[in-house]
Specification:
The chain has helices at residues 43-46, 49-58, 131-150, 165-179, 201-208, 271-286, 311-319, 411-417, 445-470, and strands at residues 226-228, 239-244, 263-267, 300-306, 334-335, 341-358, 366-372, 376-381, 385-390, 395-409, 435-438. A hairpin with a 3-residue loop joins strand 8 (376-381) and strand 9. The chain is 24% helix and 17% strand.
């Protein structure tokens, strides 16, 4: 099959157009001008803005710019200029008086425009009412204003003695005396003890019958003193609150009990992320007003839940110190490869930090409260036996919260683990933990020493605060 013949190229004809404008200025007239009879039909043309602007462009500027720009500066004729006296080139200290004709030029912008007439002395510009009523009303207003000034309440003198340190301390001790009426110190003041201020009957009544400041219809049912739970002291002396952005499990009708014993395993943070966080922290410490606190390190977490739904009850029993069977190996629901009892946890999802707030300096700024009543209670577990739970002393026990974290699913990594996305994710997939075999044990010596150290620090701080209150 022969190839098709090549088509001839089409030629386009194009002309070269060059427009050149030449300025043909007329020479000056050889003789003196004379008056001509020009018709007035083109007055509108000569009076237009376009004619004036074109005429201004055509006329060259007749300005000769010299080296001093038309403003000669000669210091030779100024007296004392070379002797250090610069008064001749400075503004005078006493300005000359303004000429009466120039005073209108110094008026502010608010006074420019149409003049505002004052109807004070012009009768025909006044409102349609009697002049006598206007005068009487102005007189009555003046009398009322003077009466109001005379009835102004005189401020009472401020008692500055209340701001003295001894009186401030007595007012603080008064609150403890009202709360502990059986332990009121009535002796003379000393370095160890000080008498509190005398409470008023209203203050005593407010303590006996407390009322809500905004809802007086509410009634007080019980009172709990606030105390720290020393037995629940952690290795870091505080707790972390983790909040999930969405429900981690597929349970919709009811709450999944396995969430009570779930495990969050932090993933090691990369060096680049640590360096960036350190730089933000240094910028915050240098200028806190311009650089907000970066919070804690943006950790990622692997979340694990028990594979066996019946493991939740047994895990709780292993952590209950009052359960006599908590050391029984039969509580484990799974077996490892060595045939040892364990709780088998499976990886559910990977989470990343969406928001983090940390307050390591003031660890008691936010606390969680737990109300406890004195005594024992029994709980039936699996319908087999009643397990005693010893309650703490009646009090509201507080647990310090040093960090709050909001977690959101790590979408790219979760999809990659499920095979729905590329496996080349940012994190190293080789370090992923698919399952955990959990064994519950008692604290070792190092962990006990850490918690004992935190407890001693807390007790020492409370003793110092109590001593300061007594002093």
């Amino acid at each position: 099959m022969s190839a098709p013949a090549a088509r001839p190229e089409r030629v386009y004809h194009q002309d070269y157009i060059a427009r050149i404008r030449y300025e043909n200025a007329l020479p000056p007239p050889p003789g003196p001008p004379k008056f001509l009879d020009i018709p007035m039909d083109g007055l509108s043309y000569y009076a237009s803005a376009g004619f004036a602007s074109r005429l201004a462009r055509q006329q060259p500027l007749n300005i000769e710019a010299d080296a001093e720009l038309g403003m000669p500066i000669d210091l030779v004729g100024m007296p004392g200029i070379f002797d250090g006296d610069e008064s001749s080139i400075q503004a005078p200290l006493i300005f000359p008086p303004v000429h009466p004709r120039d005073k209108n030029l110094l008026r502010p912008l608010s006074e420019l425009g149409k003049p505002k007439y004052q109807p004070g002395g012009i009768s025909f510009l006044r409102r349609t009412e009697y002049i006598s009523s206007e005068a009487s009303r102005s007189r009555s207003e003046a009398v009322a204003k003077n009466a109001a000034k005379s009835t102004t309440r005189v401020r009472k003198p401020i008692d500055t003695s209340k701001d003295e340190p001894i009186n401030v301390l007595r007012a603080a001790v008064k609150g403890f005396d009202i709360a502990n009426a059986d332990d009121i110190y009535t002796g003379p003041d000393s370095k160890e003890n000080i008498r509190g201020a005398e409470p008023s009957p209203a203050e005593m009544e407010a303590w006996k019958n407390p009322k809500h400041p905004f809802k007086p219809e509410l009634k007080l049912l019980d009172v709990y003193p606030m105390k720290p739970d020393l037995d629940a002291m952690t290795d870091s002396a505080s707790y972390l609150v983790a909040k999930f952005a969405a429900n981690p499990t597929q349970s919709v009708d009811k709450r999944d009990d396995r969430m009570d014993v779930g495990l969050l395993h932090p993933i090691e943070v990369k060096e680049a992320v640590i360096a960036e966080h350190r730089a933000k922290m240094e910028a915050h410490e240098a200028n806190p007003s311009q650089n907000p606190h970066p919070g804690g390190l943006p950790y990622s977490y692997n979340f694990f839940l028990p594979a066996n739904e019946n493991s939740t009850t047994n895990v709780k029993r292993k952590f209950n110190v009052n359960d006599p069977a908590r050391d029984d190996t039969e509580l484990y629901t799974d077996m490892d490869k060595n045939e040892h009892g364990v709780f088998h946890y499976e990886h559910l999802r990977t989470y990343e930090t969406a928001r983090s707030t940390i307050d390591a300096q003031y660890s008691y700024k936010e606390v969680a409260l737990g109300l406890h009543d004195t005594g024992f209670e029994t709980k039936t577990i699996n319908g087999s036996s009643d397990i005693p739970h010893e309650r703490l002393e009646k009090a509201a026990y507080y647990y310090p919260i040093s960090q709050k974290v909001q977690l959101k699913p790590h979408r790219n990594k979760n999809l990659a683990h499920m095979g729905m996305a590329n496996k080349m994710v940012d994190d190293d997939d080789d370090d992923r933990i698919d399952a955990l075999d959990v064994i519950v044990r008692d604290l070792n010596e190092l962990e006990q020493e850490r918690r004992a150290e935190h407890r001693s620090e807390l007790l020492e701080s409370e003793q110092e605060d109590h001593g300061n209150e007594i002093r």
